[in-house]
Amino acid sequence: MRRFRSCFALSVFSLVTHYAVGSYGLPSCTDVAQAQNAKYIFDFIVVGAGPGGGPLAARLAESGYSVVDAGQNVESLDVAIPAYSNIVLSDPIIALNYTMHDYPPDFQFQNNNTWHVYPRAQGVGGCALHNALVNCMAGLKPNFDALETTFNDPSWSLDTVWDYFVRIERNLYLPQPNPDHGFHGWLGTIGGPVTPSNGSDPQLNDITIGLANSAPNVLDINTRASPPNFTMTALSSTYSAIILGILPLLSAHSPQKVLLCQPEGASQAPRAYGLQVAPNASLPVSDQFTGKVELDFTEYYARHEVVVSAGLFQSPQLLMLSGIGNKTHLESFGIETVVDLPGVGQNLRDNDEIPITWLLKEDPPAGNCTFGTDPATDPCLAAWEAAAPKHDGTPYTPTVGFPGALVWKSTDDLDDPDVLQYWVPAWDMGYVSDPGFFVNGFSAITLKGHASSRGTSWTSKNSISNQSIPPDIQRDLAALRGGIRTARQVVQLPHIVEHILQEVNPGPEAQTDEELNEYIFEHIFAHHGCCTNKMGADDDDEAVLDERFRVRGVSSLRVVDMSSWPDAPGFFPTTPTYMLSEKAADLILQDTQAY
Ligand SMILES: Cc1cc2nc3c(=O)[nH]c(=O)nc-3n(C[C@H](O)[C@H](O)[C@H](O)COP(=O)(O)OP(=O)(O)OC[C@H]3O[C@@H](n4cnc5c(N)ncnc54)[C@H](O)[C@@H]3O)c2cc1C
Ligand SMILES: *[C@@H]1O[C@H](CO)[C@@H](O)[C@H](O)[C@H]1NC(C)=O
Ligand SMILES: *[C@@H]1O[C@H](CO)[C@@H](O)[C@H](O)[C@H]1NC(C)=O
Ligand SMILES: *[C@@H]1O[C@H](CO)[C@@H](O)[C@H](O)[C@H]1NC(C)=O
Ligand SMILES: *[C@@H]1O[C@H](CO)[C@@H](O)[C@H](O)[C@H]1NC(C)=O
Ligand SMILES: *[C@@H]1O[C@H](CO)[C@@H](O)[C@H](O)[C@H]1NC(C)=O
Ligand SMILES: *[C@@H]1O[C@H](CO)[C@@H](O)[C@H](O)[C@H]1NC(C)=O
Ligand SMILES: *[C@@H]1O[C@H](CO)[C@@H](O)[C@H](O)[C@H]1NC(C)=O
Ligand SMILES: CC(=O)N[C@H]1CO[C@H](CO)[C@@H](O)[C@@H]1O
């Protein structure tokens, strides 16, 4: 209870104050209710329509509640074709560029990526607008086992939560029925067990056969049972992000803070009753930001709840701007503390990824692709459009883009796989400023799930400054080195070796642990950041949320997005976060019926 002391002090204080007390305390909820402008009152306000907020907002609206959501609809080829995922990253309408400090300035290694941008997207779909659309449920058992144990609640078991995946999936690649998959949801999925693509490139077809031979148990990656330690899988991908046509959208409204009031009764926690927004204001990390201007504020009110789903950086920032966070930190920005919740912005986690790249002997047909917008000049786009609706067998088809993945345990003592390696028939050094480009590139990316690095997302009004702890944990580095070495063995297999011209990164001269470590430190990348408002038990001082996603010490306020996870979910976070969003919608609807 130590955590809530300041909020009790404040509630006693506000009993003797009145509405519009400004910085001296919270307005009384009774006064606020009378003052609310009916024009701007909704049942729920959801801030952010990414994988965390989108499905939840849609479910609340579907259940008859009025919901308002900040974000704009983006429709373009860039967000429809997974192969365009590198182009869409620089789309000025949606790009949000956060600055990331990988290592302390005095650390012996520095990342060789001069971009130093941590990409995020604004708009309906959130980062699902510009991500690689990988839909992967593997690696989640440790996450849900931990949640089940923390909350002593079987509704968090992987088996139970899996029902949400079945609910949302519209599987386009497996025969029905299948107890692990859904066929009627809103998330179209493609891919599945790998079959040599029937595309136009004999070289890639042959390599795919070689990859499949490297792990004879060709299994679906999205099954309730953990994938075996070394198995060939395929990644399935979505066509559609989130269909949110039913929502009234508030385009480009930038919330400044959550409005909080004090209910009658000293023992009651402050209540969230709305949002202060600045219409037409851009986030400082957006291309549309043209400098500081005087902001006009409008208030939107919520009859029931405010749900913050603005992603791993913006969600803790919004809480902090509302007076919810580490008291010492808030004071340093002159923000009055309503709830001293030191976990806000802490516990920044991510997956770690490291590429290994080769040149192939032949240029693949992707060499003819222009990644353009006109099928008349881009033969690959023409092929993609002609193959609608499934888009099978074209150079832009995601199953060609991801011919397969290997999943294994980095050490025998683990119960579940913690490493996933995906193969890309392209030059892929991750999200870097100057990746170089080779038409005949070929890459394997090793992704360490449940990585040990921790950081902080400290937030000031205009920037996100943060620090990640370098991956100096033996197990993480060993797992990444193991990935590079495994990939080198795989490309020696028949059907693959004859197509390899040469290894380029890190290059055959990097062999010892030390040489590989140096390469890893300089080229590690990640974009699955999370966990900055973690769910946790009552006795966990770092917990920001309880198991119903409620912000501790405040009523009618929840956080549902990547920041809600205590640990990075599995290997790819989007589909797990869609599930979280669906579960949160159920909990909110249950709790709302009780009003
Ligand atoms: C380049 C890249 C590739 C990726 N590839 C994959 C992949 O292949 N598979 C996978 O599973 N995951 C992938 N991810 C990760 C995944 O996309 C993210 O983890 C996920 O989108 C996070 O969801 P979210 O809802 O927490 O936040 P976000 O997706 O960041 O959504 C937050 C939303 O809130 C809005 N918002 C923020 N602040 C405000 C504000 N103040 N006012 C109003 N609205 C606001 C934003 O505009 C945005 O729409 C990738 C991520 C990146 C960046
Ligand atoms: C964000 O990054 C993209 C991709 O590199 C770039 O095109 C854009 O100019 C950047 N925007 C800002 C505001 O830095
Ligand atoms: C870092 O990048 C520069 C420029 O791209 C390149 O010349 C240099 O070799 C790189 N260093 C390493 C260690 O990869
Ligand atoms: C590959 O394409 C040919 C010709 O279009 C077709 O007959 C065959 O069935 C396809 N094979 C697969 C595995 O899709
Ligand atoms: C997978 O497990 C088997 C048997 O337990 C073991 O022999 C093998 O080395 C493991 N492979 C990897 C890549 O961990
Ligand atoms: C927002 O900008 C649009 C276009 O510039 C304008 O039409 C609209 O009135 C603005 N809204 C507010 C609330 O300022
Ligand atoms: C709060 O932030 C201050 C300043 O950064 C830090 O010293 C302190 O340890 C934090 N408190 C907690 C409980 O995390
Ligand atoms: C790519 O273009 C070259 C030259 O125009 C052509 O010979 C080749 O057939 C094309 N490849 C594919 C797969 O279309
Ligand atoms: C506020 C804060 O902690 N900022 C830090 C972010 O990371 C860089 C690099 O490690 C530090 O220099 C900043 O102080």
TrEMBL record:
Highest taxon above the source species: Eukaryota
Record bears the keyword Signal: yes
Gene3D superfamilies to which the protein is assigned, alphabetical: FAD/NAD(P)-binding domain, Glucose Oxidase, domain 3
Pfam families the UniProt entry points to: GMC_oxred_C, GMC_oxred_N
Domain Glucose-methanol-choline oxidoreductase C-terminal: 474-580
Keywords: FAD, Flavoprotein, Signal
InterPro entries assigned to the protein according to its UniProt record, in alphabetical order: FAD/NAD-bd_sf, GMC_OxRdtase, GMC_OxRdtase_N, GMC_OxRtase_C
Signal peptide (residue range): 1-22
Domain annotation Glucose-methanol-choline oxidoreductase N-terminal: ranges: 298-350
The UniProt record lists the keyword Nucleotide-binding: no
Single annotated GO MF: oxidoreductase activity, acting on CH-OH group of donors
Binding annotation for FAD: N131, A132, L133, V134
Cofactor annotation: FAD
Family of the protein in this entry: Belongs to the GMC oxidoreductase family.
The protein's name: Choline dehydrogenase
Upper taxonomic lineage: Eukaryota, Fungi, Dikarya, Basidiomycota, Agaricomycotina
